[in-house]
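In response to the reviewer comment on reproducibility (Comment 2.3), we provide here a single inverse folding case reported in full, input and output, so that an independent group could reproduce the run without further information from us. The structure tokens appear first.
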């Protein structure tokens, strides 16, 4: 096998990306402090043609060299918006008929592999701070919690890894190519 060259991959330009149909999926970053994690979520969002990323609280925003280092330009293609208050974003998303889900370990959470994705719904996935997770007051406003099953000794995954896993699971069922 021969690896593909970038010119053979037929990727969209940022302008073309803005005009194509998007996966009915948004990410909300609730106080994600690492710019590398923010950039990684941008890159994942671009890969799966997500509608938008909401950056909230202490989450940094583009333009930023540290975000760009991992986003590799995805911050130029994926629509994003900053809100100081994550609660306001949830209010807006619910008014737009999104099912809002916290990706968090919580009493009553649904394991990702057991969650039934309704392909007619729009989803908003909330990802939290690297140390403290999603604010409890934000979890309280969500329609549910999704948890990634883990089998080892550690109790958590890096937020950008969690985003990649959960976004992939949702995107593979929601994408219409």
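Designed residues, in position order:
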């Amino acid at each position: 096998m021969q690896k593909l060259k970038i010119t053979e991959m037929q990727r969209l330009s940022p302008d073309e990306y803005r005009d194509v149909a998007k996966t009915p999926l948004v990410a909300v970053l609730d106080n994600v402090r690492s710019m590398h994690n923010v950039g990684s979520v941008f890159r994942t969002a671009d890969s799966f043609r997500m509608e938008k990323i909401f950056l909230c609280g202490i989450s940094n925003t583009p333009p930023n060299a540290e975000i760009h280092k991992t986003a590799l330009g995805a911050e130029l293609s994926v629509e994003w918006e900053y809100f100081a208050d994550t609660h306001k974003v949830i209010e807006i998303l619910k008014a737009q008929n999104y099912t809002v889900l916290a990706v968090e370990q919580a009493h009553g959470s649904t394991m990702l592999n057991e969650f039934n994705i309704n392909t007619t719904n729009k989803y908003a996935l909330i990802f939290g701070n690297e140390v403290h997770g999603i604010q409890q007051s934000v979890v309280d406003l969500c329609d549910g919690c999704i948890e990634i099953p883990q089998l080892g000794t550690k109790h958590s995954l890096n937020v950008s890894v969690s985003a990649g896993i959960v976004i992939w699971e949702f995107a593979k069922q929601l994408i219409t190519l």
